[in-house]
Structure prediction request, 158 residues.
Amino acid sequence: MKKLLSVLLFGIILSFNANAQALGTDYRTALGFKFYPGSLSVKHFVQDNAAIEGLASFWNYGFRVTGLYEFHGDISGAPGLKWYAGPGAHIAFYNNKWGRRYIDEDKVAIGIDGVIGLDYKFNGAPINLSIDFQPSFNIIGYSYFYGWGGFGIRYTLK
Prediction:
């Protein structure tokens, strides 16, 4: 499944590359991967200082979709580097393949998320990097509060 998703993402990136590349320090849309928890990532600026990010995470026991609304701000003296922070929400579908007795079979989890991090766009190359902290709290389903850090690498489109 992961190989299929990787090939699909690579194909999408190549098809967009034929149309346009964002070569400055700003970009409008970026596609890529966020490490931990391994997620496909799509980020799109809806305003100069605000973006929406969608994350799709897949595990052997289910999958999770997360949407984030991120407020961005420039960091003076560092072209291409921005801070960002914002709220979000997620929905997850999982089964009990991972063997936890206190989790019922075939469940849905819904919760809220937050994010705070740094976003860097290379000047002259269609590459974007990000590093962030994303706390998450389930409201429906298996209740937990969890925070993880993520490192993202994306291909930028204008």
Notes: The chain has one domain: 2-157.
